[in-house]
Amino acid sequence: RFLELAHRLDRETSGLLVVAKKRSALTVLHDMMRNGRVEKRYLTLVAGRWMNPLQHIKASLHKYLTPEGERRVSVDREGKPAHSIVRLSKRWQSASFVEVELKTGRTHQIRVHLTHQGFPLCGDDKYGDFALNKRLEGQGLRRMFLHAARLRFRHPLTDTEIALESPLPEELAGYLAHLEATEQRDYG
After folding, report:
1. Which terminus of the chain has a smaller tally of CB atoms within 10 A, N or C?
2. Using the 8-state DSSP alphabet, how is residue 48 labeled?
């Protein structure tokens, strides 16, 4: 009778979702997320050569509406604290495949943090490099490359550890295979 999403993904993001079947579980899950007790890891491909094997990004984020009424987010010290940990997996001449662990769960956090660092997500139509996205589309990447790959948390009612993984969807894995075949890899 009761089904409620415990967390949301951007419409263009693939991967894991958690659905609560009881309101009591949902409340505990929300508290766990607010207190950083849910490990969330995403996989993304960014434009450019990410150099650091491990990097913490701590930059406050501010939500606002555009004149057209669209929701956007920007880095702003007056915003809410946000913390992402980026781990380099593979790097090519033009792009880098990274894992991002969210320590906070702000709207568009990964997209804004990485773009602010100079590394827009491939295929991101809100914060990305629009000319690059057109070229990537011609190479077969027709969506934003962002995937909720891993979640780890304690079950909100039984306290059993839950570890979930979701493999990259075929379209994203296929684009990585295209990069492997066409570009020189220089990391990983």
Report:
1. N
2. S
Q: Which of 10, 76, 125, 159 is catalytic?
A: 10
Q: Do residues 89 and 37 touch, judged by C-beta distance below 8 A? A: no
Residue 47's closest CA among 114, 137, 139? 114
Task: For residue 42, give the amino acid letter.
Answer: Y
Q: pTM, whole model, 2 decimals?
A: 0.94
Which tokens belong to 130? 């629009």
Q: Are 99 and 41 in contact (CB under 8 A)?
A: yes
Note if 124 is an active site residue.
no
Task: List, run by run, the mean pLDDT of 10-residue segments along the chain (188 residues).
Answer: 85 93 93 91 98 98 95 96 97 97 95 98 97 95 97 94 97 95 85
Tracing tokens 């010290």 back to the chain, one arrives at: 77
Token code pair at residue 77: 């010290």
What is the enclosing helix (H) or strand (E) of 42? strand 39-47
> What are the helix (H) ranges across the chain?
23-34, 109-116, 130-138, 170-182
Q: Distance between the two ends of the chain, CA-based, in angstroms?
A: 47
DSSP 8-class letter at 71 = E
